[in-house]
Known about the structure:
The structure is a homotetramer. The first copy, chain A, is α/β, with parallel strands linked by helices. Chain A folds into 2 domains: 2-54, Vcp-like ATPase, Chain A, domain 2 (Roll); 65-241, Rossmann fold. Helices cover 28% and strands 35% of the residues of chain A. In chain A, strands 9-8-7-10-11-15-12-13 form an 8-stranded mixed β-sheet. In chain A, strands 2-1-6-5 form a 4-stranded antiparallel β-sheet. In chain A, β7 (89-93), α4 and β8 form a beta-alpha-beta unit. Chains A and B meet through β6, α2, α3, α4 and β11 of A and β6, α2, α3, α4 and β11 of B.
Amino acid sequence: MLTLIDERNKKYVVDGKKDFHTDLGVIKAEDIQNSKPGSIIKTHLGHEMKVIKANVNDYIDVMERRCTIILPKDIGIVITYTGIGCGDKVVEAGTGAGATTLRFSRVLGNEGKIYTYEKRKEFYEIAKRNIEKFGVKNVVMRYRDIRDGIIESDVDLVFLDMPDPWNVVEHAYEALKYGGWFVSYSPYVEQMKKTRKKCEEFNFSEIFTYECLLREMEIKNDAVRPKTRMIGHTAYITFARKVP
Amino acid sequence: MLTLIDERNKKYVVDGKKDFHTDLGVIKAEDIQNSKPGSIIKTHLGHEMKVIKANVNDYIDVMERRCTIILPKDIGIVITYTGIGCGDKVVEAGTGAGATTLRFSRVLGNEGKIYTYEKRKEFYEIAKRNIEKFGVKNVVMRYRDIRDGIIESDVDLVFLDMPDPWNVVEHAYEALKYGGWFVSYSPYVEQMKKTRKKCEEFNFSEIFTYECLLREMEIKNDAVRPKTRMIGHTAYITFARKVP
Amino acid sequence: MLTLIDERNKKYVVDGKKDFHTDLGVIKAEDIQNSKPGSIIKTHLGHEMKVIKANVNDYIDVMERRCTIILPKDIGIVITYTGIGCGDKVVEAGTGAGATTLRFSRVLGNEGKIYTYEKRKEFYEIAKRNIEKFGVKNVVMRYRDIRDGIIESDVDLVFLDMPDPWNVVEHAYEALKYGGWFVSYSPYVEQMKKTRKKCEEFNFSEIFTYECLLREMEIKNDAVRPKTRMIGHTAYITFARKVP
Amino acid sequence: MLTLIDERNKKYVVDGKKDFHTDLGVIKAEDIQNSKPGSIIKTHLGHEMKVIKANVNDYIDVMERRCTIILPKDIGIVITYTGIGCGDKVVEAGTGAGATTLRFSRVLGNEGKIYTYEKRKEFYEIAKRNIEKFGVKNVVMRYRDIRDGIIESDVDLVFLDMPDPWNVVEHAYEALKYGGWFVSYSPYVEQMKKTRKKCEEFNFSEIFTYECLLREMEIKNDAVRPKTRMIGHTAYITFARKVP
């Protein structure tokens, strides 16, 4: 996969399987196949496109979606505070458009696996297309309500972005490895509180909840300041670890 | 590697190569080798230890270090905003005690590689011991001042935690893949500003700087509130992407 | 002064000196004069208006202005960290539309005084109208560049919202009472740094800089969360106290 | 009242009614009476003390207290978002050590009045001493449980720092002027939520809740950064306005 950047700094993600059409003209599949990061290719109308290595963010930005996407800042802390990485087994619900699935997929590698549950047919189909098109091999999609149980066992992380994560705490406890993590992403205080209580009931350990705030700094006329606008809140992220 | 949790909730990370001594008694290497996550083993004094899968955070918490460690929150956003993952090639400086090296190592996998530069002999040695003991195979340590040049090429990410990252921007530009990222971690505004200017000179694109703030929520007597204490600042993290 | 609230929750601030015209009809001056907080009065078209005591925020919201207004959060910390109150003497520059002037005026009372400097004729005129209409007696307006010197002496607070506050540090030092405060409001790091250095040169004490962040909580469907949107930055507020 | 600053930058607040004893020696009452801001006076052991105008923060820092004090940042937003000022009438509970009482007292002036309720004898006595010693004339102390009713009427602000502010919403509604404000200061989400609901029942308008975060910037070796330590949370401050 490659990312093309046009003269207006607009980005496109292409795989070179077929000709690529934009309002600045057509790029032949062949030209894409022959290019590599660093190349500059031209549309049939003569407009230049810079070619760079595509990353998962480029792809998520342009892929089909009909729902909100969890921000990288929030997935970042899930990855580092649980310590997941290559070779690990992750269970996720709901899939949504598949953005988080792809992010996890990136850090789990070919030796790892992510099983993603989605009970809404529409999102299941969208995510399926998105994930297939991105071409990763370590994702297993499940068209299923995770509240009916988790099929996998010996799991390193169960990650939940759904309205009622407390209803999956028991299933998660069963599915998890000792030392593995349950993590839920919930916008509301009440969701977080109810989930934490359930985690305590099931004897999870190291229960903590973080909120992650990102501030962007800007430089204008050679002077530095934080940006005026900022996202005030996305969600409370609750972590709980299974111990004997 | 396994993590043991004693009755006081203190954690130990063990590899079972030899007997393990604590103030609660000795655990035989053999007992460690025969245990697995979920086991409970006893010291020769009869104290119980719960066994769980060790993760990179357990290990970093107990490993040798004589310097500050970059917090998971900050490495989290580096991972997700650059989109690095399995199979990628990362260059890092300075190594410090090796904590960040190990975190990157986790998400790069066996197909990926991290080259970590440290010019201070003392830290180089500490990190070497820490990394070897953790048993990862994708780390190449370089006892070298990264300001003298980056040996690698076609790199996905150059990550710098050093006082003068601006002195490495040129080397990073050369070493990076098109589409790869330069990221610097700097506590002071002036460092960030100087580095960003240098990135602009070298025609990097998508330059942005984030500060990541983590708030922990607590539940006391069944009532929720953010914790009184909070880390106010660690560093400004500047991102810049190489484009043609 | 009274605040009227119409059926759409839109607010108006009226003084009853003349008939008041809105798109919901006219209210006679007489009706306003005969009303008091708690009254409900009708326009000639029969629309009801609730009457409440007007406060300075109601007035600032509707008054004429062609510039950004400093937010209450920022003036709040100026008031409480300097400890100013009734009977104190404050010098301020620039006046802008007069919003901050009115806020200070409220807490200084009839025994106190605020001297506000504005060198831009247009803003001087706007502020003059705003301040006169609000009807306070403790404001002295100066159409003058404060960098040319401060006329007053024995001042409790010099508050500066201007691009180059460092150019007024010397004048402020002379004008201030021992124990009085110099405070500057600056969006950029560089302004703050330069001003602090100047304060150090003039031997000010208790120099500190705050940034004030306000998060609003919301309740939706009986569940609590911080709002998604938040103002990320307004200004760095630097305090310095004159000591012998 | 004057503030003395010794050679170690330690502060004392004195009224000159009697000799002042410190570990650096004694200062005669007469010497204090004859000094003014800007003076330098000596103890009988020859140590110098700088004299400055005392402010309410100097006094609060040294006064007797056996409880936590609400921080200036939080009182700041109460003052500016309600628009209270000289001549206003405020009701407060509980008094605690009287710090907030003194802050409000400063901005209400001689024409204003603050009625402060405290039901715990011990705190009532401490606050009484603190307030008398500070010498303000606009404070009326009430040794009384505010949940038994508010004696005053036509009040501009009812400010509550107590565990169950919802129990005072009805009394506050009765006591307030139309256009006046109910404000409660509560560390926990649940307190805030319960109070807001009660405010909705009593038909309060303009209900909103803020959390105020202060970040301090520091300069080290000529470089700027936010401080490492920060107060993560004090309280949720809920505002509600009485309308007809």
